[in-house]
Amino acid sequence: RRSRCAVSVSMASAMKASTVWQRIRRLTIARQLGSFGVVGVVSTIAYYVLYVALREPMGAQGANLASLLITAIGNTAANRRFTFGVRGSKDALKHHVGGLFAFAMALGLSAGALGALHTWWTLPSRWVEVALLIVANVASTVLRFVILKVMLRKP
């Protein structure tokens, strides 16, 4: 009887520990998503301010490229530190390569969207461009989170 009780207690303890780890994991992911969201909002505001400021002198595609590149570097550094808790220079190059991959995907989506817009509508207003870029950047934000999470390998 004692061995059955010991096994039952041991199994119950293991199940409780498993439940605790599942809760911690959910909290970690929720914290990561919250931090990612804050970094994303700041990056997005910076992107649109830069885009609107650079649109006239550089054109739509040039402004998009410059704004996206500048904010992608800052976004990757901020997410590396605040979202995924990575500090120091260890693997920084690898992480920034992942960020540049996410940048390339975002650039493809946003440049393609702008190209299509300007094909169908010769002189769209800046606000139409910005609205379209918001949609493209929402899609690339989801991709960025997944890419950074995989590249940084944090739970």
Tell me what the structure shows.
By secondary structure, this protein is mostly helical. The protein is built from 3 helices and no strands. Helix 1 crosses helix 3 (126-152). The longest helix is centred in the first third of the chain and has 82 residues, at 2-83. The radius of gyration is 22 Å and the shape is elongated. The two termini are 40 Å apart.
Keywords:
single chain; 155 residues; mainly alpha; 3 helices; 89% helix
Tell me the overall shape: elongated
The description of the largest β-sheet is: none
What structural category characterises the helix and strand content?
mainly alpha
- Average residue-wise pLDDT: 82
**What gap, in angstroms, lies between the N and C termini?**
40 Å
**Uncertain regions: pLDDT < 50 for 5+ in a row?**
none
Beta-strand percentage range: under 5%
Number of helices: 3
Q: Please count the beta strands (DSSP E, at least 2 residues each).
A: 0
Instruction: Classify the helix fraction into a percent range.
Output: over 70%
What is the gyration radius calculated from CA atoms?
Answer: 22 Å
Element string (H = helix, E = strand): HHH
